Amino acid sequence: MTTLTPSKLMGAEVKRKEDPRMITGTSTYVTDVVLPGMLWVAFVRSPHAHAKIKKIDARAALKVPGVRMVVTGDDIRTLARPIPPASASAEGGESTGAPGRQHYALSTERVRHVGEAVAAVIAESDYAAHDGVGAVQVEWEPLPAVTDVFEALKPGAPQLHADAPKNIEHENTIKNGDPDAAFRSARRVVKQRMVSQRLCSIAMEPRACVAAPDPTTRGLVIWATHQAPHNLRGDLAGLLGMDQNVIRVINPDMGGGFGNKFGCYAEDVVLAAMARKLRTPLKWVETRVEHMQATTHGRAQVADLEAAVEDDGTITALRMKVTANIGAYPVFTFIPDLTLFMGVGVYKVKNVDLHSTCVFTNTTTVAAYRGAGRPEAAYYLERLIDIVAAELGKSPEEIRRKNFIPPGDFPYATPTGQNYDSGEYDRALTKALGMAGVDKLRREQKDRLAANDRTLLGIGQAVYVEMCGFGPYESAVVRVEPSGTVTAYTGTSAHGQGHETTFAQIIADHLGVDFDKVVVRHGDTATMPQGNGTGGSRSLAVGGTAILNASLKVQEKARRIAAGMLEAAFEDVVLENGRYQVKGAPTKRLGLGDIAAVAYGEGLSKELEHGLEATDFFRPPQLVYPFGAHVAVVEVDRETGSVRLRDYVSVDDCGVRVSPTLVAGQVHGGLAQGIAQSLWEELVYESDGQLTTGSLMDYAVPRAEDLPSFRADATVTKTPFNPLGAKGIGEAATIGSTPAVVNAVVDALRSLGVKHLDMPLRADRLRQLTKSAAR
To answer: Which of 35, 162, 385, 637 is deepest in the core (most CB within 10 A)?
Structure first.
């Protein structure tokens, strides 16, 4: 049996392997791909939220200099099948098969949201393609549109899909214990409606695709900004009627994903189908306006919550009714289900009645966005806890501690069907409150109120738990080259997380190779083992475990070869301080290069196969559940309504941290996104389906000056469900930060009678509130 080698690099602060090419501009992104004879593609998109397509006239566009061709849905229907309701290629979803909800990559009869593609212009340059788009004439027959979920559910509302009566995509209910009896006997019932508004990911790099014929296989090579290249390959093969092994998908360096670079988009299908037909390379790069109109959005839920509460703050039952706006088409419609799965959070509530309804509207499709269902659940619960505390006149931490799942109860089976692996929620909260100096802050808060200070102080806290480490598996190949260097291949596909660094740390420790001599490759279906990509904070817990397992298999074979070279028994050979030696005989030591030379040479024992590599497909036995506690300190100006985030403390527990530097980066980025939802970001549709925040002139993303220097710390609670003891960190800070900031702002305004405010907490909204209170 191989064993874990004592770590020297795992847990160490190391420089990222990816950074030299990133900061010197020598990375390759999809936009950098230029091929001989390549043509450009731009898309004609609907200006209407709901309309019939009566006629498309391309005659004027074909006269535009440089325009080669205009492609419509009638052309595409002969080349590709309709796009089905999405496969759930990430985060544990299941595919559905509703034929009435399918549509061609270029819509043929009806459009259901602003920005839906109906034609494509192929031209000699990007400029010519966009000029051609402006010349295409489309005759529309506008139809009534609906953008509000509750309006969409009403009798007589415009119906988006014939097989979705009342515009309901699906519903889900989780009921456990006896919540009805608990509510009947409760001392009080606390109720609140909350909104988790619609968001746009605004990754640094928009979506892009290059499709080219492959002369070797007579198939296709696709360069795409995609979080799971193998999944895109499978989707395209199915839609185009091709074998998977003649489609190669490459995801080079990618500037962010956040969940919306999963799935198979219409643009990918059009480029692949037309490149196959024309035997010509084609390229498309999304504009920011296209990104905001046609790339999937996030969140967009309304939740009605009720808590049955005793006088001491014990919550005996929860009701949660989530009404989710999933937009025009079904993609990752299981995300509201994830909200229900995490419907008790960190609290020991046995009686639950949770329900979700997914509703079609004439808006851009809603799918995965950093955290995907779990931030929504944490927001609802952590706001509800603060509301309960205010009702009872108790501190928020007292109510949290009263209801926490205690450490001795783990593993803990929740009434929503989850099996929490490990957790010490009070330890994380106590540490965060201490770091923030909450007692001193509350004294300052009282002094400001007594002095009628213009600036109100607010302290908010939140404790979260999330589910991550989704399967069904992840893959790895670890190969020692004849020189003793190591090349590893992973089925996950990084878009900023630093896989090359983290996986090299694992390999270096467990093979005795220098960190700088390890190369980690990813994102190419021609060379990578079949994998499920990056999403749901799964890359280290699942992909990293596959890397570890493959490394240990290689280590075992290296020890067997070393045993022959050292004339020792295999059981006596150990890897120690980066060298293979006989126990207790450190003078006879072999480096990995010495062993590799024999593994690939003629002197290898006949009992062993040549080569020194291994493959592993790790299937996680269950999900893992990272957690943490956040504290936000805000100042609210009574006169302007502006919110200043004065201090922010996060204590996140992601289990064992292989690369603390990368964890810190993930935390900082996650905090920025979660805080931005609480204070600034919101996609807004008018009732006619027009997107009023459809550019970066209207949609507010945070700047560095808007955020303080975060103070991030950790507790470490290992998971027993992978040998690394690692959980996930990619989404954690986003989940904890949104409720912490909203709780802080509401706390600042509590003296004005504020019980709850819906996000985003923009200055104009707060100014109206403070002015009304002053009057």
So the answer is: 385
